[in-house]
Design goal:
Blueprint: H1 2-10, E1 32-37, E2 44-50, E3 56-62, H2 67-87, H3 90-94, E4 106-109, H4 122-125, E5 131-134, E6 137-143, E7 147-152, E8 166-170, E9 178-184, E10 198-200, E11 219-224, E12 236-239, H5 254-257, E13 268-275, H6 279-282, H7 285-291, H8 297-300, H9 302-315, E14 320-327, H10 328-341, E15 344-350, E16 356-363, E17 367-372, E18 375-376, H11 377-383, H12 388-394, H13 398-406, E19 410-418, E20 425-432, H14 440-461, E21 467-472, H15 480-487, E22 489-490, E23 510-511, E24 516-518, E25 527-529, E26 532-534, E27 537-542, E28 546-551, H16 557-560, E29 578-584
Parallel strand pairs: 1-6, 13-14, 20-21
Antiparallel strand pairs: 1-2, 2-3, 4-5, 5-6, 7-8, 9-10, 9-11, 11-12, 13-29, 14-16, 15-16, 17-19, 18-19, 19-20, 21-27, 22-23, 24-27, 25-26, 28-29
Organism: Prunella himalayana
Pfam families: Exo_endo_phos, PDE12-like_N
Protein name: 2',5'-phosphodiesterase 12
Length: about 575
C-alpha cells in the first residue's frame, strides 16, 4: 500500500489537473499541485503536496481547526525536509552548513490574491484555485479533484465482443472520463519498434470492441478522470492480463439484435427478463457431469459467459432488464459497470443465505428511481401485518409452513418515474420462485405474498401505478402459480395444493386485484436443458394500463439445439431471455 501511496504522491509533481490535450483554463505547468480532500461527512481533511526537495507530504487536519495551525505545521515539515537534505550534502557539511534549517514563510492566498486569515477554519480556507506558498515555492490548491480509485479490464477478451472496463472514481463520473485504447505491437512487425510496445487504436470510447485483427494481442487502457466541469485528474493505465481470443462465431442472440438496434421512443418501454445462470451453479461438478455434460467446460466458465452476456444484453437496447441468478461479484464487477456504460442503472438484491440474487436495471435517461421495496418472502410473511391473514391460514399446515419459511427466495420491487412525463410511473417487480418440480404449493404461497406486497406498493403507496412483474417463476402455463397470477384467484381445490402428496396438502382460496397478462404469451420453452424443456419465465403486465407493441422472437429451435441444448458456446445460460416492447394505453 505504501508503494502505491508513494506512486500516487509522485504523480502530484508537475501534473496540473488539466485536460490531457490542453485547455481548461488551468495553471501553468510550473506551479505544483496541493491536493485537498474535504468531505462534510468526515471530521478531517487531507492535504498532499511535494516539497521542493522532492519529499512527499500527506497531512490530516481537523476541518474546524484554524488555518494558522495547519500552516505552522506545514512550515515545520518544510524545515525538517530542508534540514535532512542539508545533512545529506557533503558539500554543505564542508562549508559548515549543518545549522538548524530555516523555517520558511507559509501563507495561503485566495483566488483573488488576498491572504486568507489564519483564524478561518480549514474547511473554509482550502478552496479550489487558492495558492499555497512555502517560501519561494507556489502550489495551486485543487480541492476534491477527479481521481480514479479502480480501473480494471475483464480477464477474458473475445474478438467481436465489447470490452467494458470497471471504472470507479471519486469526484468524477465514468461518462466524463477520457479513454484511450492501445493494442500490443506484433513481434513480427517490421521496422524499428524500440520503445513502441503499444500502438494507440482509433477508439476513444469507454467501451471497446476488438476486431479479429487483434486476436493474440493484449490491450491497454489509459483513463483520465473528469468531472464534467473541465477538471481532470491524473490518468491511470491498466493492461489486460491475457490476449484477445477468437470469438465463438454466430450466437443465438445475433438475429434478435436485428429487432433491437435502437432504443424505443419515450412513449414505449422495452422490457427484458432473463435467468442468466449463476456461476455458483454452473461451476459445480454436478453441473459439468450431470446437468450440462454436452456443454464444453470452457463455455461454463464465468469469464467466457460474461463476454456473451454483456454483448447480448447491450444489444437489446432495453429500458428495463430484470435478471435472476445474478452472482453478487458478477453484478458488482461485471454487469453493473458494463450496462452503466450503455446508459443503464442497476439495483441488486441478494437472496437470503445465498451468493446470488436479483438485479433490475433501468435506462437513466428514461426513468428515475423513486423508491425500492424489496422483501424476503419468509421474513415478510412472519413480520409484515399485510400478510397476517395468509400467515394464520398457513399455520394450519405446519409441514408446508416450515418449507415456505426455509426458502431463501426474494422479491425485488422498484418504483420508477418517467423523466419526460412525471405522471407516468411503473412498479417493476422481479422474482425467482422456488425451483422444485413438486413445490407447486410453495410457489402458490410465494405468489400470494408477492401479489399482496405489490398491491401495497402499486395501490396504497403509489395509487394507480401500472405493474410489470418479471421473473423465473419455475411454473409452466398449466401450473397453479401461472393461473393465479393471470386470472387473479386460485381455488382451494387446485391440484397444486397437493403437489407434494396428501401429507403436504394445504387448501386456501387466494385472490389479488390485478389484471395481468403474459406479454410474451406462452412460448414452447424458455428453459432448454438436456433433461427438460418448458416455459418457466414470464413478463406479466398490467393489461389495464399497458399493451404489447411487439414481442422479439425467440431463437429458432435449430439455433437452440445446434450444440444439443443450453448453455452452449453460443448461448451463456440454460434459459432464454424474454423481450417485449410495451406502451402505455
Amino acid at each position: 500500500m505504501w508503494r502505491r501511496l508513494r506512486s500516487a504522491l509522485r504523480s502530484l509533481r508537475g501534473s496540473p489537473a488539466a485536460p490531457p490535450h490542453g485547455g481548461g483554463g488551468r495553471p501553468p505547468a510550473a506551479m505544483e499541485r496541493a491536493v485537498v480532500r474535504c468531505l462534510p461527512s468526515e471530521p478531517k481533511l487531507s492535504l498532499r503536496f511535494v516539497l521542493p526537495d522532492g519529499s512527499a507530504r500527506h497531512m490530516q487536519r481537523d476541518q474546524a481547526e484554524p488555518l494558522g495551525r495547519a500552516l505552522a505545521r506545514i512550515a515545520t515539515n518544510a524545515a525538517k525536509g530542508h534540514g535532512k537534505a542539508g545533512k545529506k550534502s557533503k558539500k554543505a557539511r564542508a562549508e559548515g552548513a549543518e545549522g538548524e534549517a530555516e523555517v520558511p514563510a507559509v501563507r495561503l492566498f485566495s483566488r483573488d490574491g488576498a491572504a486568507v486569515a489564519e483564524e478561518v477554519p480549514n474547511a473554509a480556507a482550502w478552496q479550489d484555485g487558492a495558492v499555497l506558498r512555502i517560501g519561494d515555492a507556489q502550489y495551486r490548491v485543487e480541492r476534491n479533484p477527479p481521481a480514479l480509485t479502480e480501473l480494471r479490464l475483464p480477464r477474458s477478451l473475445l474478438a467481436g465482443f465489447p470490452v467494458c472496463p470497471k471504472v470507479s472514481a471519486e469526484f468524477a463520473a465514468p461518462q466524463h472520463c477520457l479513454f484511450r485504447w492501445f493494442r500490443e505491437q506484433r513481434p513480427e512487425s517490421g521496422g524499428d519498434t524500440a520503445g513502441e510496445a503499444w500502438v494507440e487504436t482509433a477508439a476513444a470510447e469507454r467501451v471497446f470492441t476488438p476486431s479479429n485483427a487483434l486476436v493474440g494481442l493484449r490491450l491497454k487502457l489509459r483513463c483520465t478522470p473528469g468531472d464534467g466541469e473541465q477538471r481532470y485528474g491524473p490518468a491511470l493505465e491498466v493492461e489486460s492480463s491475457g490476449p484477445v481470443e477468437a470469438g465463438p462465431g454466430a450466437c443465438t442472440f445475433d438475429a434478435r439484435h436485428l429487432y433491437t438496434k435502437k432504443v424505443c421512443g419515450h412513449g414505449s418501454v422495452r422490457a427484458v427478463s432473463y435467468n442468466i445462470l449463476a456461476d455458483t451453479y454452473a461451476q459445480t461438478e454436478f453441473s459439468r457431469t450431470v446437468l450440462y455434460p454436452y456443454c464444453a467446460p470452457y463455455a461454463l466458465e464465468i469469464d467466457y459467459r460474461q463476454n456473451l452476456l454483456k454483448k447480448e444484453l447491450a444489444g437489446y437496447s432495453a429500458d428495463l432488464i430484470c435478471l435472476q441468478e445474478v452472482d453478487k461479484s458478477v453484478f458488482v464487477d461485471s454487469l453493473a459497470p458494463a450496462l452503466d456504460a450503455f446508459g443503464l442503472e442497476g439495483l441488486f438484491r441478494i437472496k437470503e443465505k445465498q451468493h446470488e440474487g436479483l438485479a433490475t436495471f433501468y435506462r437513466r435517461d428514461k426513468f428515475s428511481l423513486l423508491s425500492q421495496h424489496d422483501i424476503a418472502f419468509s421474513e415478510a410473511l412472519l413480520s409484515e401485518p399485510l400478510h397476517k391473514e395468509l400467515c394464520e391460514q398457513l399455520a394450519k399446515y405446519p409441514l408446508v409452513q416450515e418449507k415456505v419459511l426455509q426458502r431463501s427466495s426474494v422479491l425485488q420491487v422498484s418504483v420508477l418515474q418517467s423523466t419526460t412525463d412525471p405522471s407516468r410511473k411503473l412498479c417493476v417487480a422481479n422474482t425467482h420462485l422456488y425451483w422444485h418440480p413438486k413445490g407447486g404449493n410453495i410457489r402458490l404461497i410465494q405468489v400470494a405474498v408477492a401479489m399482496s406486497h405489490i398491491k401495497h406498493v402499486a395501490c396504497d403507496l403509489y395509487p394507480g401505478t401500472p405493474v410489470i412483474f418479471c421473473g423465473d417463476f419455475n411454473s409452466t402455463p398449466s401450473s397453479g402459480a401461472y393461473s393465479f397470477i393471470s386470472s387473479g384467484d386460485i381455488a382451494e381445490d387446485h391440484e397444486d395444493w397437493v403437489s407434494n402428496g396428501e401429507e403436504e396438502r394445504c387448501s386456501m382460496s387466494l385472490s389479488h386485484p390485478f389484471k395481468l397478462l403474459s406479454a410474451c404469451g406462452e412460448p414452447a420453452y424458455t428453459n432448454y436443458v438436456g433433461g427438460f424443456h418448458g416455459c418457466l419465465d414470464y413478463i406479466f403486465i398490467d393489461r389495464n394500463a399497458l399493451e404489447v407493441e411487439q414481442v422479439i422472437p425467440l431463437p429458432s429451435h435449430e439455433e437452440i439445439t445446434t450444440h444439443q441444448a443450453l448453455p452452449s458456446v453460443s448461448h451463456p445460460s440454460d434459459h432464454i431471455a424474454l423481450i417485449c416492447d410495451l406502451k402505455w394505453k
